[in-house]
């Protein structure tokens, strides 16, 4: 009897209403066109005239109304452009860049300069979504001053609007400092890939009462320090729901169940471009790997068999008299 009474509120909280993607765009203000964009991409002016820039305020309103937030990683101009064009709310230049784009074996290998190089490319393509970059491993640990210097570089030279930091209560002072000077911080708790060595691998976090408490306390401390949103990675869905219901900022889940304020996936995972391990939380929404295989194999085969290029449609003509003159000129 008592158990049923206790269960009803948590069930109700789990069944938050969810409105359509049109609802998600309702609050977004008109984004001013930017001359640099129009010169660079041509069609950008038309898109910008229709587009609505996503802000932190919109993200908070989406959380309040139960409109799910869609976040995706991007690493270059075309992936940034795709986020811009197809309704993504937050583009993340994730440090998964290290593994999926640069071939490193871990995100801890990524430098700030490498991150900046990719942020600039993504920023040129992704204008409407809110743009966040991961602070690379080591770029926010030595001191708050160091974190400020490096976060300023990401904003100033990388063109991003906010930074993401992995960690718990120990990074709260850094989050407070960055927030106080106007650099919005997205926190990241649960599985912390930058600490995979000390954690002995990529493992689901918060599976027992004690570690669930620790993830929960981290989220509360980081919200308190001023984080505008919190990524919850690889934690039991009950814990993801609980944290989401207790916080007043949006939660973005990756392997944290269906009740977070939003979801994030790595571009290469959702597109099936990543050849490595597939985590349980990954759903493949498109099959780029198969298309790549078909495209490259067909091209190689056409070159080898001499069927590419075609002399009529894929080659250039020359006036016959000019050609004769050319030959005569050679004697
Ligand atoms: N392609 C890709 N996708 C990601 O989501 C991702 C990266 N790379 N690189 C950086 C980090 C690393 N991440 C990872 C990596 C592995 C697991 C993983 O293997 N998880 C196990 C958990 C097993 C368990 O503890 O029960 C799984 O199989 O889901 C999870 C997140 C998330 N990030
Ligand atoms: C998996 C996401 C949240 C991330 O941090 C990354 O892409 O690096």
TrEMBL record:
HAMAP family: PanB. GO terms for biological process: methylation; pantothenate biosynthetic process. This is 3-methyl-2-oxobutanoate hydroxymethyltransferase. It catalyses: (6R)-5,10-methylene-5,6,7,8-tetrahydrofolate + 3-methyl-2-oxobutanoate + H2O = 2-dehydropantoate + (6S)-5,6,7,8-tetrahydrofolate. One of its GO terms (cellular component) is mitochondrion. GO terms for molecular function: 3-methyl-2-oxobutanoate hydroxymethyltransferase activity; magnesium ion binding; methyltransferase activity. The lineage of its organism: Eukaryota, Fungi, Dikarya, Basidiomycota, Agaricomycotina. Pfam families: Pantoate_transf (PF02548). Its EC number is 2.1.2.11. Keywords: Methyltransferase, Pantothenate biosynthesis, Transferase. It comes from Neolentinus lepideus HHB14362 ss-1. Belongs to the PanB family. Catalyzes the reversible reaction in which hydroxymethyl group from 5,10-methylenetetrahydrofolate is transferred onto alpha-ketoisovalerate to form ketopantoate. Pathway: Cofactor biosynthesis; (R)-pantothenate biosynthesis; (R)-pantoate from 3-methyl-2-oxobutanoate: step 1/2. It is an enzyme of class 2 (transferase). InterPro entries: Pantoate_hydroxy_MeTrfase (IPR003700), Pyrv/PenolPyrv_kinase-like_dom (IPR015813), Pyrv_kinase-like_dom_sf (IPR040442). The keyword Transit peptide does not apply.
């Amino acid at each position: 009897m008592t158990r049923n009474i206790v269960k009803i509120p948590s069930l109700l909280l789990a069944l938050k209403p969810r409105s359509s993607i049109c609802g998600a765009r309702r609050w977004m203000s008109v984004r001013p066109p930017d001359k640099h964009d129009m010169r660079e991409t041509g069609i950008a002016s038309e898109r910008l005239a229709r587009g609505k820039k996503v802000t932190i305020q919109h993200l908070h309103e989406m959380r309040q109304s139960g409109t799910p937030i869609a976040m995706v990683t991007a690493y270059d101009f075309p992936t940034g452009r795709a986020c811009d064009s197809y309704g993504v709310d937050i583009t993340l230049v994730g440090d998964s860049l290290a593994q999926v784009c640069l071939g490193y074996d871990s995100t801890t290998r990524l430098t700030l300069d490498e991150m900046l190089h990719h942020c600039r490319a993504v920023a040129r393509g992704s204008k409407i979504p809110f743009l966040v970059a991961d602070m690379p491993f080591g770029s926010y640990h030595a001191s708050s001053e160091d974190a400020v210097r490096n976060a300023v570089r990401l904003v100033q030279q990388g063109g991003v609007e906010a930074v993401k930091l992995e960690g718990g209560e120990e990074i709260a002072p850094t989050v407070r400092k960055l927030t106080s000077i106007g650099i919005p911080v997205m926190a990241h708790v649960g599985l912390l890939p930058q600490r995979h060595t000390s954690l002995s691998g990529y493992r689901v976090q918060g599976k027992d009462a004690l570690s669930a408490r620790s993830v929960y306390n981290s989220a509360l401390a980081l919200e308190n320090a001023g984080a505008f949103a919190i990524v919850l990675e690889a934690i039991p869905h009950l814990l993801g729901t609980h944290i989401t219901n207790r916080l007043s900022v949006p939660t973005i889940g990756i392997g944290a169940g269906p009740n977070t304020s939003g979801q994030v996936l790595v571009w290469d995972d959702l597109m099936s471009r990543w050849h490595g391990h597939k985590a349980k939380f990954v759903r493949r929404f498109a099959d780029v790997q198969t298309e790549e295989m078909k495209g490259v194999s067909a091209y190689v085969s056409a070159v080898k068999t001499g069927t590419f290029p075609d002399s009529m449609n894929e080659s250039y003509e020359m006036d016959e008299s000019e050609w004769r003159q050319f030959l005569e000129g050679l004697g």
